[in-house]
Amino acid sequence: MTQYHGGTNFGRFASSYVTTSYYDGAPLDEYGLIWRPTWGHLRELHAAVNLSSEPLLFGTYSNFSLGQEQEAHIFETELKCVAFLVNFDKHQSPTVVFRNIPFQLAPKSISILSECRTVVFETAKVNAQYGSRTAKVVESLNDIHTWKAFKEPIPEDISKAVYTGNQLFEHLSMTKDETDYLWYIVSYEYRPSDDGQLVLLNAESRAHVLHAFVNTEYVGCVHGSHDGPGNIILNTNISLKEGQNTISLLSVMVGSPDSGAHMERRSFGIRKVSIQQGQQPLHLLNNELWGYQVGLYGEGKRIYTQEESSSVEWTEINSLTYHPLTWYKTTFAAPVGNDAVALNLTSMGKGEVWVNGESIGRYWVSFKAPSGQPSQSLYHIPQHFLKPTDNLLVLVEEIGGNPLEITVNTVSITTVCGSVNELSSPALHTQGKDPEVRLRCQRGKHISAIEFA
């Protein structure tokens, strides 16, 4: 079964640790562009199957071995016949004899034989047109004077918390999955010892990301991964003042789980918090009085919308660039034309981005793939989200990034090519007798030059 169209997980719809973009290699990609040669190769397969629809639907099925790792699967009526010759060998190209006709099978391939004698499709031979998709920078948002910043307030007053309790509450039961964020706030009285011992904060969580603040100062972050252990543990040395100190922990989900047994029994959020002064006994804070704030302040105020953006005081970004938990905003003009539009967020860390009040999804470019590159750096903006000018761009950055390096890009197919030889099968959809190359542009484009023939 083939998924025919890729897409975008706008807003918070992506599941745990899943990128905003999904199945971009589908015959129609995330931007609605034809992804070649997948689309053309699949079109040829559809034509081959349609050509033999009668024996496939009404014929008698049989199969037999053609060799150690080769098989024939036949569907046959009194008048029509189609055969599938399968080679499971990953390395060899054996020649098999089927109904007194020799056929050479490519490694790990399937050949479809119309009337059980003529090859009309081979999975291993791609004759379809292929092309390259490129992202072109049309605007660099590098003018510092067009950017504004707002530092997310760190909650530190338990008396102002919406919920309180002498226990650690489960994350999703508090947020109702209406936000990724849940603040856990607790007070700790520090009495320094004479030997100046280090103070260690330990927090164990089943959320996906955990940020820690002490007296509103950022002290550390830890995150999990899709295939990692369920628990994440933050261990960090902290500085405390004598007397009362506030520890604010931000529990962050990156989507909800989408598979597995007993999902209704899964729990998330902080499970254990402790402080240790030097060699003194561990001080467990689980049963202290905890305050809870659901969501970020900026989320609640909807400062990512044009209507509510002015409800907070934005400042110049000089002193806040790279600071964790900071909101950024600017405006940009929509690119001219109908090409797909995307933001390049390679310079950022982790957060969420809105265009004209519409969330185009979470981003997490600081989380690198095994190749050392982000799993995703381009984030799709649908054309209907855009206005000709003054499009409001708002980001909330959790870890720290440089918004001055964000670019607006257009995405399109810029090069197309194809090749055939005398051994290639004619394209079924053209109904021609000889193999040929036909090159076509996406709608609205034209061929401007022939680079090689």
UniProtKB/TrEMBL annotation:
Domain called Beta-galactosidase beta-sandwich: residue spans: 71-126
Record Gene3D superfamilies: Galactose-binding domain-like, Glycosidases
Main localization category: secreted
Swiss-Prot/TrEMBL GO biological process terms: carbohydrate metabolic process
EC number assigned by the record: 3.2.1.23
Xref: SUPFAM superfamilies: (Trans)glycosidases, Galactose-binding domain-like
Cellular component terms per the entry's GO annotation: apoplast
Assigned protein family: Belongs to the glycosyl hydrolase 35 family.
Name by which UniProt lists this protein: beta-galactosidase
